[in-house]
Amino acid sequence: MQSIDAFLRQPLQIGPVTARNRVFLAPLSGISDLPFRQLAWRHGAGLVFTEMVASRELVVDHPESHARLRGDGIDPHVVQLAGREARWMGEAAKIAEDAGAAMIDINMGCPAKKVTGGYSGSALMRDPDHALSLIEATVKAVSVPVTLKMRLGWDHDSLNAPLIAARAEAAGVRMITIHGRTRMQFYKGSADWDAIARVREAVAVPLIANGDVTSRADIAVCLRRSGADAVMVGRGAQGQPWICGELAGSADIPADRKARNAVALEHYRAMIAHYGDDVGVRHARKHIGWYLETLAPRTPADRKVMMMTSHNAEEVVETFAEVLETAAGLSSEMESAA
């Protein structure tokens, strides 16, 4: 029997696009921006997806939407689009393809109220006919593969992912990702990998399982129970953009604390360069918090407060570097004492 390590290292074919391994980084709104995706890609993720790009805003040239569209240095570049109208999805898909997207992913899984309140994201699962009109418009608009990410259903009374998946495959979708929760669960409880297996029975295209996958042990159980062809890591990547590569057995991950500290600092500087000081400092705060949880959990409260409130990028990065170095030193001392 093939080992889980060997399986995850295998490429996965999605139409003409080849994913280099079977551990993907999820599209994470407000998180998987260009600096984060570049790090995850460099450290071995099989595929990385942009945070969702609002289709109408992209068509009307909203600057933030075009910034989210970028994929510098990432090949294949996968863009996720969100919307509620077929016209905007089709036009936005063309723009994304012209900008270098090798695949277009449709967001039908986001549970956020500001998204579902506009009848986008997982709200589309409440009206499969309308959802299919968006899928058909997107597939028709581009020559690159179109993929779909969704949840099990809106709630446990409407677990319609298998039905929608089958119709999406018939409409030309080349890969389907299922987050093993309903919209009404948000991120509570546990992902239901067994329920994903109902989608496996409904489609032949590659199936990706998402939700609560943070270790090789998780992956082995998830793949066995879901029948999926690959997994997608979401919140588990927070504070460790190398995790997809690590789970896939990539040789490109930062191997020790010193190297991981360097990645964290590089990420901070890249965010400042990408957004500029004012915006970058604010966007980077959540990432600093996650890195501290991963690499420096004993950081003094006053140091945390300073990094989370200061508007001075240089001051923050100096403190961040100092905290990470101190934590690495303490870790080494504890290991030596043991």
Automatic annotation (TrEMBL):
Catalytic activity, EC: 1.3.1.-
Catalysed reactions, as listed in the record: a 5,6-dihydrouridine in tRNA + NAD(+) = a uridine in tRNA + NADH + H(+); a 5,6-dihydrouridine in tRNA + NADP(+) = a uridine in tRNA + NADPH + H(+)
Residues the record marks as active site: 110
Assigned keywords, A-Z: Flavoprotein, FMN, NADP, Nucleotide-binding, Oxidoreductase, RNA-binding, tRNA processing, tRNA-binding
Top-level taxon of origin: Bacteria
Family: Belongs to the dus family.
Name of the protein this chain belongs to: tRNA-dihydrouridine synthase
Organism in which the protein naturally occurs: Hoeflea halophila
